[in-house]
Protein 1
Amino acid sequence: MSAAFPGHPLFDTPEHLPNQIERPWDYPSLQTFMAKLPPRCHDDWEAGAQFLMRHTTTTGTYSQFRGEVQRFLNFLWLRREKTLSQAGGDDIDQYMALVKKPLLSWATPKAAGRQRGFVTRQGVRVANPKWRPFYDAETRRKDATMSVVVASLNIFFTKLVVSGYLPKSPMIESTRKAQKASKSEHSGNQKGLGTIRKKRTTAPRLTTFQWSYVHDSVMAAANEDSRYERNLFVIVTMKALYLRVFELAAHGSEDSDDYVEPVMGDFGRTTVGNRNYWDLHVCGKGGKDRWIPLPASYLDYLKRYRRYRNLSPLPEPGETSAMVTRVNSETPIKNKRQIERIFEESMMLAVNRMIRENLHEAAEELRQASQKTHLLRHTGASMDIENGRQIRDVSEDLGHESAAFTEEVYIDADTAKRYESGYIRSIV
C-alpha cells in the first residue's frame, strides 16, 4: 500500500468472501495489516464479515454495505484509534464529516477510475496499492448520498446489536446535522421562507386488523357466492407472493416479443436440496424474471380456485389455462385495470362489513386505502419481515435490485414503536 494511506481493503468480493473467512492466510497483506492493530479489531473484522455474508447473493446490496463497513472500520481503527465497542456519537459525527470531505490520501482520484480492493498475485489475494476507501474527494456529497451512508450504517449497527456484539448502536448518539449534506448543497429553512415537509418513504400497507377484515370478508363472500372465488384468489396471491397488479394480467404488446400472458403453467415444482417446492414464475417490471416460492398454506387457496374453475387440484407442467379469467369464463383478463377492479371490489366487501358492524372510522380508512393498488404487495412483504423472514429473501421475491432498498422501504419497526410511545404520553 502507498505510505500516503495507512489503511487497507478489508473485505473481498462476494464470490471470494467465504474463502477469505475460511482461509485468511490467502490474504497475507491483510494479515500483516491486522497484526498491527489491537486484538479487538480482529473481532470487529469478523463481525463485519459475518454481516456481509448475509448479502453475498445480492451484488448491489453487498457492494454498498462492503464499501461503507470497510470505510468506517478503517476510519475508526486508524483515525479514532477505537474499536466498534468503543464507538459513540462523536465518532459517527466525525466519520460523516470525512464522508462529506474525504482526505485526499483516503480517496482515489477521479482520473484513476474506481479501483478494486484486492488483486491476485502468485496465487494469493493482496491489496491493490491504488485502492482507497473513497472515490473522488473533490465531488460534494449530496443528501441522497448521505442518506445511503446513514441507512447502511444503521442497518449494520442494528444487526450487531441484535446479534449481541454491541450493546447499542452509536448512531443513536449521532447528531442529525452531521448526517445531512452541507447546507450550501440544498435550499431549506431560510428566514422568511416556508419549507416543504419531507414525505416518509415507507411503503403504504394494511394493518393486521385491516388485512384480517379483507381476507375474512372475501372468504365469507366466496362461501356464499362462488363468483367471489376469483376475488379470494387474487387478493391472497397478491399479498402472499408480493405481486404487482399487472403481474396477474396479460401485459405488453400482443404483436411483440415482450407480450406476457400469465397462465397456470407458470406454477411449477422445483427441487432445492432434498425437498420439492412449488413456486411461481413471474415476468415483472422491465421484463425481469423471478421465481417466487409458494407458502405451504397458499396451496389450499390455489386448489380452491382451481376447483371453482373445474381444473385439476394443482397445475401441471405446460398448462395453458389463464391465470385469472372473466367470471364464469375461461377468457383471460387482458389488462391490469380489470385486476384493479377485483382488488377494489374485495376491499369494499370489507368496508361494507365494517359499516354493518358500526366501525365507521375504520371503514373510511379502508375505503381510502382501496385506491392504492400496491397495498397488498407491500402488506405481504412487511408482515413477513415482521414475522422473521430474511430481508434478502423478501427482497428477491419482490424483484428489488437491492436488499438495502427493501429494508429502507419496509423496515420501520423502531419508528412504529416511537410513534406508539409518543401517542400514549400523558400531557398532565
Protein 2
Amino acid sequence: MTRPYRILVATTLATAALLLGACAPKAPVTGTVTAADQVAIKYETAGRGEPALVFVHCWTCNRGYWDKQVEHFAKRHQVVRLDLAGHGESGRERKDYTVEAFGGDVAAVVEKLGLKRVVLIGYSMGGSVSVEAARRLGDRVIGVVGIDTFYTGFEVPNDEKKAAQMVGGFLKPFEENYPEASANFMRGFFAPGADPALVERIAKAAGSADKNMALSAMRNMFGWYSRNVPAALDALGPKLRNINANPKGDRKALHPSVTLVTGSGHFIPQEKPVEFNQTLETMVAELTSAGAKK
C-alpha cells in the first residue's frame, strides 16, 4: 500500500468514526440534585436530541421501571429518569410526601440538566407529579403524557369532607397491614395473562416500600386529585396526552387525549412495552410538531 493511499484510508476511517460517534447515543450518566427541602434526588440521563423525555415513575416504584423506554428512546432523544424522594436511591428525609414536593424533584432535575424543551411522561402518581412539575417549568414543557392516571373512570370527590372519608376508608387496610395490602393492591392492576414473575416483582416492591412514605404519598395524591382535577388538566389543553389501560379490550376512551392499549393493565410500559413505545413515539412527534409551530 502506497503512502498516499494509506493516508486516504486513515482519513476516511477517522471521518467515519467521528460521524458514527456523533450519531451514537450518549452513554448513561447518573447524578444527584438537591431538592428544595435538601433531600438528595438521584437521576440518570442518556441519549441526545430534543425534546428531552423525562420519565416520572409511579407510587412505590423507581426509575428502573423505565428500562424498556430508555433503551428505545435514547436513540433519538435525551432521556431522563429519576427516583422521586423516598423512592429508589433518593433521600428519605422528607416529612410529608406531597405531589407538589415531588413536582419540585422533577423540576430540580430538569433545571440541573439545563433542558430547554421537554416532554414529561408521568406514570400513575407520576402523572399528577408531572402536572406540578409543568407548572414550575413553564414554557420549556411542550407536553405532558399521563400513563393510566387521568380519564380512567376513577374519581375523587372535590368535596373536602367526602374526599377525606373516601381516602380514610381506602387507606385503612394499608395502615393495618401495609406489606400485604400494598402487594395485593398492585396484583389487582394487571391484565389477565400477565407474566406472573412481573406481577410478583412489582407486588413485592410495593410491599417492601417504606410505609410512612407510601401512606403519606397516597394520601396526598388523593388530596391533589380532589383539589386539582379537572381544572389542572383543562389548563394543559393541547399539551396533554394520555395512554391508558384496556385489559379486556372493552373500554372506551373517556377523553380525546386518551389512547388505549388493549391487553394491558395498569403497568402498560412493562406489560406491553412495544405497543407503549410506539404510542408514546407518536405522541411525542405530535407534541414536537405542535411546539415547533408556536
Protein 3
Amino acid sequence: MRRTGLCLITVLLALAPMQAQSTWRFAVSGDSRNCGDVVMPAIAAGVSRDHGRFYWHLGDFRAIYDFDQDLLQEPPYRGKRPNILDYEQNAWDDFLQSQIAPFETETVPVFLSIGNHELIPPKTRAEFLAQFADWLDRPILQKQRLQDNPHDHRLKTWYHWREDGIDFIDLDNASPEQFDSEQMKWFRRVLARAVSDPAIRSIVVGMHAALPDSLASGHSMNNSPAGEQSGRAVYELLLDARNRGHKNVYLLASHSHFYMANVYNSAAWKQHGGVLPGWIVGTAGAVRYPLPEDSAQADAARTNVYGYLLGTVNPPGQPAGTIHFEFREVKERDVPGAVVNRYTPSLVHFCFAENSEAGQGRN
C-alpha cells in the first residue's frame, strides 16, 4: 500500500509542471502612420477585450516624409496646412498621445520596435532612443539587459525579454545596413542562451521588415545586400534553434501594409533549409498595399484591412510553449466615439474605405 502511494505521488509530481502552464494572450501589429490615430484606439480596445498581456508595435509610427492624414484633421490643424517643422517636432508626441495612451488607459503595456519611418530625416536613432526611452527601458527590459550583462546600461534599438518560458526578441532592421555586426553578435549570444536553457520552450522574434526570401520579398530585407546577408544568417540561426535546439520559433514583421500568414512558405526556404512560421501584420493604420504575386502560397493573405495578430500562449490541449496566432480585424464601427468626434466621421470613413494604394510606389 505504501509502495503504491509513493508511485502515485511520483506520477503527480511529474505531471505538475504540465498542469501549471497557464493560457494567456498578447497582440502584435505595426505601421500606424497615415490613419493610426483613428485605428490604434480601436486596436487598444480590442486587445483589452481579448485580455492581451501586452501589445507589441513593430514600427512606423508617423509618416514623417509627409503629413499624416489623421493629424491634418485634428482640431488645431483642420482646414489649414501645418508648418513642416512643427509637424516633425510634434509627430512622435502625437503618436504617444493619440495611439499609445489608449493602451495605457486599458492598462496594456506596450513594446516598441523601430521602423524605417523612424529614421526619415531629420529623425535619427539617437532621437528615437531619447524620445521612447521610457518604453525601451521598461522594468522587464532593464532587468533582462542587466541580467545578461550587469555592466550594460546603454539603451539600444534592439532588446529581448523572457516571460513564462518564451524569449521575446526585438530586432532593428530599420535601415539598409542592418543587421550590423554589433547587433548580430548580441543576437547570437541571446539565441545561444535560449537554446541551451531548458526553461525556454519558444522563441518569438519581432522586427519591422520581414527577413529575406519571404512571399513578400519585394518589400523586405531583400532590398539591400547587407540586409539579405545578415537576414539570411538570422533565419538560418533560427532554423538551427528549431531543428537542433528543439525550440518553437515564430517570426513577426510588418513593413508591408497587409496581413499574411506563413510568409516564409517560399520556394527559396523550402529548398534551402525549411519553412519557419511567420506573419506580416502591417495593419495598424498605414495606407494599405496590394498583395504580392506570391500571396497565394500563404495560409492567409488580406489587404484593405486593419487589425492585430493575437497570440495565444499554451492553448488548451497543446504542448507547453505552443503559441497559436490569429488575425483580429477592427472595423469602422469599432472606432471609439470620442475618436470619431475628434477626427470627424468623414475622416474615419476615409481611413477605412479609401486609405489604400494601387501600387504607385512604397516607402
Protein 4
Amino acid sequence: MTNQDLYKVAEKRAKAKLGFYIHATVYVFVTVFQVGIHSFTTPDEMWSIFPALGWGVGVTAHYLGVFVFADWQIKEFLIEDEMVRLKQMQEDVRER
C-alpha cells in the first residue's frame, strides 16, 4: 500500500470515529436534558427512558460499525498485501 492509500484509509477511519464521538456526545446531552425535563414535569412517569433506549440502540449500532466491524472494510488491502507476498514467494522460488 502506498502512503496515499494509507492516508485515505486513515482519513476515512478518522472521519468515522469523529462522527461517532459527535453522535455519542449529542446523545448524552439530549438524554440528560430529557431526564431534566422529565424530573421537573412528570417525575412519577418514566417516559424519558424510552427515547434514551431507542436512540441508545442507534448509538450502539454506530459504535459497532465504527470500532468493531471497521476492520472488515480493509479486506481489499489485506488481499493486496497477500498478493504482494505471494508474488515475492514466486520470485524467490524462481531464483533457486
